[in-house]
Amino acid sequence: MLDDFFARAALAGVGVALAAGPLGSFVVWRRMAYFGDATSHAAILGVALALGFSSSVFLGTLVAALGMALLVNMLSHKGHSMDTALGVLAHSALALGLVAISFIQGARVDLSAYLFGDILAVSRLDLLVIWSGALVVTGLLYWRWSALLTATLNRDLAQASGINPRREELVLTLALALVVAVAIKVVGALLIAALLIIPAAAARGFARTPEHMAIGAIIFGAASALAGLGMSLWLDTPAGPSIVAAAAAFFATSLGRRKA
Amino acid sequence: MSLISAKDVTVCYDAAPVLSHVNFSIESGEIVTIVGPNGSGKSTLLRTLLGVLTPSKGTVTPKPGLSVGYVPQRLSVDTSMPITVSRFLSLPHRKFVADQSHALERVGVQGLETRQMVDLSGGQFQRVLLARALLAKPDILILDEPTQGLDQPGVAAFYRLIEDVRNETGCAVLLVSHDLHVVMSASDRVICLNGHICCEGAPTVVSETPEYRALFGLGTQGALALYQHAHDHVHDGDCDHHDHAHAHEDHANA
């Protein structure tokens, strides 16, 4: 089955959806949409670094995303206006990455693969990386679930229950960097945040508990991946954007369901 | 030992002291009300006692293994998060359904389990927060302006509920109120805070006097009491609320 490029692509998409669903729910609850943008845009800088030092692209994006996520996390505790700070950081990281890549000598770099993803070219090794990353993130969130939820509702409430809210934020930061690093191959740096937010937002209308929403987000994410891939195959559209377009369609249909 | 004790605590925001040289302790079963004007550091003191803020000077020592039931001043559940009352009560630790419904019943909002938190009214929300705090079987209940937005009979009813809970469970109660003069009559001590502890004492139970009746009506059944401030110093500038202690006598006579 893994010999078929389409099957590999489908598995990659479902793997990313598995991690992006619950993590994306937290991104929505904590209003961290821009946080996701900044982290994923930093991945382009990571690609440039990886190519420059000829190390693995996965490692480069992971390090850059983690660095950006920690930087943003730190800034948010210093009382900066997050909206502007994140806007500056997100787009600066993207621009710096694009500039840096232009300096890379030798083999021409196919930038669009990193900006928009290259899910149809996913190798067996990529699949291994994606699923390992996805399982680590899902496991991490499952393990910390109750503490993360409490800290998301109210930091002081968490503290009074013996939960350190900063540690929980660090867990989310770490998970976000990991998801960005594994998802860049699937939807590309520009659309990772969409894959986090849209399925979770679509699941909101159907959910009564946080757990329902997280599971719903996984289902919508996986369905979007499959629908997007199908569309890409039949209509010859770019795969990554097609996946996000499918997710947007799911979101639109969920709007009627939303009852506060 | 005391449940929580603070020794010579100073807390600064950006180098400006919000609290200076505060000494505080609360014993088990005690009800302590902290009053003070806006910006007097009441919430800062609570958050320092909870361990959210670290004092710049001094120490805060909770009793080892202390279980705290905390009712925050505001808790806004983001509309993007679906969460039922039942799920909320189980944060961070799972609670049995029977215990949940018992806790809700105790605070007077039985049957709300399947409602969404965002759909609750202000009074219901406050009581659900209290139910959650009680489910932790606390040694101490810490409430930050729990009666905000309630009318006077509502405040009196809430204070009676807290008093009953204390009598049943024996937990200590630490309560913050922005009302400088009308406090919970069951308070063993009232502490007036304005950056530092201005004065401390027991509330005057005046519920028998006709003036009290005129002020509060009959509906409050003695849950409220007056607190007579006895400051031995005068504040310079705008934090002067010294003369209020006399002002309410005029109100009572009017």
Automatic annotation (TrEMBL), chain A:
<keyword id="KW-0864">Zinc transport</keyword>
<keyword id="KW-0862">Zinc</keyword>
<keyword id="KW-0813">Transport</keyword>
<comment type="similarity">
    <text>Belongs to the ABC-3 integral membrane protein family.</text>
</comment>
<comment type="function">
    <text>Involved in the high-affinity zinc uptake transport system.</text>
</comment>
<keyword id="KW-0472">Membrane</keyword>
<feature type="transmembrane region" description="Helical">
    <location>
        <begin position="6"/>
        <end position="29"/>
    </location>
</feature>
<feature type="transmembrane region" description="Helical">
    <location>
        <begin position="84"/>
        <end position="104"/>
    </location>
</feature>
<dbReference type="Pfam" id="PF00950">
    <property type="entry name" value="ABC-3"/>
</dbReference>
<keyword id="KW-0406">Ion transport</keyword>
<dbReference type="InterPro" id="IPR037294">
    <property type="entry name" value="ABC_BtuC-like"/>
</dbReference>
<dbReference type="InterPro" id="IPR001626">
    <property type="entry name" value="ABC_TroCD"/>
</dbReference>
<keyword id="KW-1133">Transmembrane helix</keyword>
<feature type="transmembrane region" description="Helical">
    <location>
        <begin position="213"/>
        <end position="233"/>
    </location>
</feature>
<feature type="transmembrane region" description="Helical">
    <location>
        <begin position="41"/>
        <end position="72"/>
    </location>
</feature>
<keyword id="KW-1003">Cell membrane</keyword>
<feature type="transmembrane region" description="Helical">
    <location>
        <begin position="125"/>
        <end position="145"/>
    </location>
</feature>
<feature type="transmembrane region" description="Helical">
    <location>
        <begin position="174"/>
        <end position="201"/>
    </location>
</feature>
<protein>
    <recommendedName>
        <fullName>High-affinity zinc uptake system membrane protein ZnuB</fullName>
    </recommendedName>
</protein>
<keyword id="KW-0812">Transmembrane</keyword>
UniProtKB/TrEMBL annotation, chain B:
<keyword id="KW-1278">Translocase</keyword>
<dbReference type="InterPro" id="IPR003439">
    <property type="entry name" value="ABC_transporter-like_ATP-bd"/>
</dbReference>
<dbReference type="InterPro" id="IPR003593">
    <property type="entry name" value="AAA+_ATPase"/>
</dbReference>
<dbReference type="Pfam" id="PF00005">
    <property type="entry name" value="ABC_tran"/>
</dbReference>
<dbReference type="InterPro" id="IPR027417">
    <property type="entry name" value="P-loop_NTPase"/>
</dbReference>
<keyword id="KW-0864">Zinc transport</keyword>
<keyword id="KW-0067">ATP-binding</keyword>
<protein>
    <submittedName>
        <fullName>Metal ABC transporter ATP-binding protein</fullName>
    </submittedName>
</protein>
<keyword id="KW-0472">Membrane</keyword>
<dbReference type="GO" id="GO:0005524">
    <property type="term" value="F:ATP binding"/>
</dbReference>
<keyword id="KW-0547">Nucleotide-binding</keyword>
<dbReference type="InterPro" id="IPR017871">
    <property type="entry name" value="ABC_transporter-like_CS"/>
</dbReference>
<keyword id="KW-0813">Transport</keyword>
<keyword id="KW-1003">Cell membrane</keyword>
<feature type="domain" description="ABC transporter">
    <location>
        <begin position="4"/>
        <end position="219"/>
    </location>
</feature>
<keyword id="KW-0862">Zinc</keyword>
<keyword id="KW-0406">Ion transport</keyword>
<dbReference type="InterPro" id="IPR050153">
    <property type="entry name" value="Metal_Ion_Import_ABC"/>
</dbReference>
